Structure formats: structure tokens, C-alpha cells
């Protein structure tokens, strides 16, 4: 049994996430997913839309996911020790550097292979959380403009 | 084998959807989900954020879902004939009226029981798609205000 580990924020689920998790699972037999805590997301990206508990609970509902964990803040390798993966799959755009991750793993006697996955070439223009957020904001701006024009003609 | 059918828009997945689908599945053994087409969503609610194909593809990824279909526009009962459910589960806030649905089913010799589900009493304030959208728009407005204030002090 080859255990694969994948990590991410998974705020507002989209098909890019599904692609990433399916590609990761293809590398082995079972997939353990680590969901980043809110404080980690704030440090790396932005304020999450959905809190960590909700992001974790949703990830658990995907059939591709066998186990799901919340990340650890002090030392991100603590959760790796708990999961004991054979392979750690990195998304094509995830910031972690393969070489330094490998070094940190070795230091801790964790014997996992790092695999960088290919980019998602989905046909849709709506894969990314940012694109979903962008679409919501555009719709909101259009609505405000319509309301302003209607207000001017009252 | 008791087959349950549930329908919805499922634009931006959240725990309220999961609760609804799990409660529906508890009524039987397998769950068939009908995802509303974009034109149906436009008629009943608003412009969907995610197009029908993406909403359908995401619903298929949930472990609680056994089968997923896109709704039919001309006659919503066509897809019911195809699915042949024993039970049709209605969400607590879904507009369909039990009595009129039962009448329409009888007319078409479809022998399915209608069950209205209870409301989701989730502890979070983020269950609904509207709440997620609201949170995104608030964050956007705050950001714009910050940018304006920073601009004034340049």
C-alpha cells in the first residue's frame, strides 16, 4: 500500500483542486490530505473565506480523499510524521522547494519521495478560487452600476 | 435497494449542501442527484457563478453521491422517469410544493414518495452560498476602502 500525501488551502472547492487530488492519488493507493490552518493561510496568501474547520470538513466529503488532517503550525513536518506518507505530492504552483523539503524530511528520518505534479490544463476559465472570487466581484460591480443608473433615472 | 433522488443548484459547495445530501441518502440506499441547468437557475434565482458542467462535475466527486444528472429544461419530470427514484427528498427551503409534485408524478405513473427534510442547524455562519458571496464582497469593500484611504494620504 503506497500512501500519498497532498496539502492545500482548499477554500471554495473547484475542479482544479479535484484534478490535483486525483493526480496525487494516482501516484499510490491511498490519499491523505493536509488542510492548511487559517493562520498558515494568512501568512502565505490571504484571509481565508472559509475557516479551517469548514475547509477540512468539506475535503473529507470527497471520494478521492481517504484521510484528512488539519496542518500543524509550529512545525509542518509534525503532521508528516503522523501520516507517514510514501510520497508527498506537490501542486505545480505550490511554493515548497523540492530540495529543501527533502532535506527537512531526511533530518527527521522521514522516508518520503517528493513528486511535483503537472499543471492543470482544464478547459474551463473557472478553476481557480481567485477566478470564482473575481466573477462574484464583477457581478457585484455590475449590479451596483445598474442600481446607480436606475437611481439616476427615478 | 431504495433509491433516493435530490435536486439543487450546488453552486460553490458548502456544508449545507453536504448536510442536505446526507440527510437525503439516509432515507434509502443510493442517492441520485439532479443538478439544475444554468437556464433553470436563472429562472428561479440568479446567474450561477459556476456553469452547469462544473457544478455537475463537482457533485460527482462527493462520496455521498452515487449518481449525478443534469436537469432537463422542458419537463423536469423527464429526468425523474430516467432515475426511477423510490423517494424524492426536498430540502427544507426548496420551493416545490409536495402536493403538486405528487400530482404530477401520479399523472406520469411515477411511483415515488416525497419527503421534506428538516432545516440545517449547523453551528457555522458560513453554510450558504449567499453567505460565502457576502463574505467575499465585504472583504472586497474593505480592501477598496483601505486603498482609498491610503490614496488620500499619499
What does this structure look like?
2 copies of one chain form a homodimer. The longest helix of chain A has 24 residues, at 129-152. Chain A contains 6 helices and 5 strands. The model of chain A has no long low-confidence stretch (mean pLDDT 88). Chain A is of the alpha/beta class and 154 residues long. Chain A binds chain B through residues 12-15, 18, 47, 49-51, 53-54, 57-58, 61-64, 124, 126, 132-133, 135-137, 139-140, and chain B through 12-15, 18, 47, 49-51, 53-54, 57-58, 61-64, 124, 126, 132-133, 135-137, 139-140.
Topology:
The structure is a homodimer of 154-residue chains.
Chain A: E1 3-8, H1 15-26, E2 30-35, H2 38-44, H3 52-59, E3 67-70, H4 77-83, E4 87-90, H5 98-107, E5 113-116, H6 129-152
Give me some keywords for this one.
homodimer; 154 residues; alpha/beta; five-stranded parallel beta sheet; 6 helices; 44% helix; elongated
Amino acid at each position: 500500500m503506497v500512501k500519498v500525501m497532498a496539502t492545500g488551502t482548499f477554500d471554495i472547492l473547484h475542479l482544479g483542486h479535484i484534478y490535483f487530488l486525483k493526480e496525487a492519488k494516482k501516484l499510490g493507493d491511498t490519499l491523505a490530505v493536509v488542510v492548511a490552518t487559517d493562520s498558515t493561510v494568512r501568512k502565505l496568501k490571504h484571509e481565508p473565506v472559509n475557516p479551517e474547520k469548514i475547509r477540512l470538513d468539506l475535503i473529507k466529503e470527497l471520494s478521492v480523499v481517504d484521510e484528512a488532517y488539519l496542518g500543524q503550525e509550529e512545525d509542518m513536518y509534525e503532521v508528516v510524521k503522523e501520516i507517514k506518507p510514501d510520497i508527498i505530492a506537490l501542486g505545480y504552483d505550490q511554493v515548497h522547494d523540492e530540495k529543501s523539503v527533502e532535506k527537512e524530511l531526511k533530518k527527521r528520518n522521514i522516508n518520503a519521495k517528493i513528486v511535483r505534479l503537472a499543471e492543470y490544463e482544464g478547459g474551463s476559465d473557472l478553476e481557480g478560487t481567485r477566478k470564482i472570487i473575481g466573477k462574484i466581484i464583477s457581478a457585484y460591480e455590475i449590479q451596483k452600476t445598474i442600481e446607480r443608473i436606475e437611481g439616476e433615472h427615478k
